[in-house]
Write a structure and sequence with these properties.
Elements lengths: L6 E6 L2 E6 L4 E7 L2 E6 L4 E9 L2 E8 L4 E9 L6 E5 L6 E7 L5 E9 L2 E6 L10 E2 L5 E6 L2 E6 L5 E6 L9 E8 L3 E6 L4 E5 L4 E6 L7 E2 H4 L9 E2 L2 E6 L4 E7 L10 E7 L7
Antiparallel strand pairs: 1-2, 2-3, 4-5, 5-6, 6-7, 8-9, 9-10, 10-11, 12-13, 13-14, 14-15, 16-17, 17-18, 18-19, 20-21, 22-23, 23-24
């Protein structure tokens, strides 16, 4: 989606449909072996096409003319990986997340400059989840190998690292982490707990509890896990809308597999006053 243009790029059936306005009316279509698409500004649409098992093509489009500005091939390091385009702080750049399950997951930075796309693979990781960028764009967070890492952008070095607390063995670090303002992060555990990390010390300092969706014994959430009492919440997914406002998806509780409904909530993290 563009920041203020009201456009959405929907992918499916190997094509991209661009939708506009609250009525989500189709205004343009691109047909090819598309894997993903993402707007980074009012004028720029990034797309990713599967060319062959070992290669994808990253493209940049001018949405005022729907002309392709530039394209470049990117080698798939694992073969037949899934490529997903993610936001980058720069309006002329994109993140390409390459995921091949147990074979590995890595990150590419793509930037448009002087009519050409330059792509660099981040060198340090072969087990990368989605990255989250500092508001300045100068560093980013990523979960890798069950640890939280903080790196300088674009090539490192690592400036912070956090392991999961050994005393909390009933839960583990999830793959979603997002900056909260500039020196804190929201980390989602495998059990759906919303944890606040102090990035100055790389320590968990607090936990968010959403009214009506507070952590509770996991057996209360999943009837198949009766007899287990580790704490969990009904959060299944979290997405940032800004650096302190989040959208979360919640499972209906209690529920069996393939039953129940999901609920969407929008909420804000209050000012933090750690000492």
């Amino acid at each position: 989606m563009t920041p203020d243009g009201g456009l959405i790029a929907a992918t499916g059936d190997n094509r991209i449909t661009v939708l506009a306005g609250t009525a989500l009316e189709p205004i343009h279509r691109l047909n090819d072996c598309y894997e993903d698409a993402r707007f980074t500004s009012n004028r720029l649409l990034w797309t990713c096409i599967r060319l062959r098992s070992t290669t994808v093509v990253l493209e940049a489009w001018d949405t005022s003319t729907w002309q392709r500005i530039a394209a470049t091939e990117v080698r798939d390091p694992y073969g037949d990986s899934a490529f997903q385009l993610l936001p980058h702080p720069s309006r002329d750049s994109i993140v390409a997340w390459c995921a091949a399950g147990q074979d590995g997951q890595c990150l590419f930075w793509g930037s448009l400059a002087d009519g050409a796309i330059v792509v660099d693979r981040f060198p340090a990781l072969d087990d990368a989840a989605w990255p989250s960028f500092h508001p300045s764009g100068l560093d980013f967070l990523v979960v890798s190998g069950g640890e939280l890492h903080r790196y300088q952008f674009p090539k490192g070095p690592m400036t912070g690292r956090m392991q999961w607390p050994p005393e909390d063995e009933d839960d583990q670090m999830g793959e979603l982490v997002y900056y909260v303002r500039s020196e804190s992060a929201l980390l989602v555990s495998n059990n759906g707990r919303l944890l606040l990390v102090d990035l100055a010390t790389m320590r968990i300092r607090d936990e968010i509890a959403i009214a009506g969706h507070e952590p509770r014994p996991i057996a209360e959430l999943y009837m198949s896990l009766s007899g287990r009492f580790e704490m969990a919440s009904d959060v299944s997914f979290v997405l940032p809308l800004s650096h302190d406002v989040f959208l979360s998806v919640h499972r209906e509780v209690p529920s069996e597999p393939d039953e129940g409904r999901d609920h969407l909530l929008m909420w804000q993290i209050p000012e933090l006053t750690w000492t």
